[in-house]
Amino acid sequence: MNRRNRRHTQKRSLVAASITHALHDGYTDALYAFMPVWQDQFGLSYAALAVIRSLYYATMGGLQLPANRLLRGWSARAALILSTAIAATGLVIMALPFGLAGLCVGLVVAGIGSSIQHPRASLLVTDSYGEAARRPLGIYNFAGDLGKAVVPALVALLLTVLAWQPVLGLMAILGIALICTLVRLVPPVSAAKDRERGATATRRRGGFRILTVIGGFDTATRMGYLLFLPFLVQGLGGGLPMVGVALALLFIGGAFGKALFGGLGERLGVVRTVMMTEAIAALLIVTTLFTPLILMLILLPLLGLVLNGTSSVLYGTVPELSDGDTGRAFAVFYTSVIGSGGLAPILYGAIADHSSRTVGVIAAAATAVLIIPLVLALGPYMRSPPAEPQRSCNQSETQ
Fold this sequence. Notes:
Blueprint: H1 3-42, H2 46-62, H3 64-70, H4 76-95, H5 99-129, H6 134-158, H7 164-185, H8 192-199, H9 205-235, H10 240-268, H11 270-287, H12 293-317, H13 326-353, H14 357-378, H15 393-398
Helix pairs in contact: 1-2, 1-5, 1-6, 1-7, 2-5, 2-13, 3-13, 4-5, 4-7, 5-6, 5-13, 6-10, 6-12, 9-10, 9-12, 9-13, 9-14, 10-11, 10-12, 11-12, 11-14, 13-14
């Protein structure tokens, strides 16, 4: 394959993976828009709503590894089409008149579909770009945030003019449109490449374990701060509209962070970049405890930049430390990240309940600080060690 055709294939693969990520992450966060409607429809408590949401979230997170294992021999196109088809089927089941039981079954089915997407789409990008995959993985990561912004907003708008069942049907139609796009974009090649790499892998697993812990801690920091941010804004005199503005500013900064920091990781190196972002994140988190509301709003985009930007650096490092089986490595990494995102707010909430909100926020900042020694421990496992100084002619002659 000549260079021009290779670049064309790389771009098509990146576009396919990115739009798949955007739609599936949009499906995930769009569930929040349906919560008030389902509460009224089925007479649910807040706790029951949380349990219903967890049917999707836990299924998506818990099945990353099994789904990847089952689909190792599938091509990327077939895996992503299957992923989207199952997720869309889940939405259709939710929209049918089966009551609360149908809603719960549909959420589980949709979660099964989305569990396939993360490891296989990430693998598609990695296989397409090889060692140059760090920046494309950052773009793939950024696309997920775009989906989280666009799809829930679209759903919220549609719910003002349509019942919730037709809205779910329209979301399923988006999935069908994506399937048709994937058929045209992604070539139907096998996934044997991923299996073959496992036999020749040279990366040690210890580095990947450290990376996975760092990913979990990084997500815990982000989710912990998000738990307390609305209450911090209200404590400074901001109402619900101001809470929405604060979250939007944080998310906008986060989206740009995911797009930009993959390239920064290539220039500065993973260790330096992660140390910098986590230190700044911890400092800004603590600072927002003591600033007036206007200054907090000014700082939130910068905080979002470093809170979310680290994730692109970490995702881009997964192939390097994958021990050859990149699909499985992404599945393990996403399981850690998603699991941490579910458990961290519970832990930080318990800390705040038994002390104060300020202590809970400081605990989230302390988690970011804990990442710094971990990433220093990760350094020896990374590729591209410092080049040895060139020997002089005299030294060469004497040896």
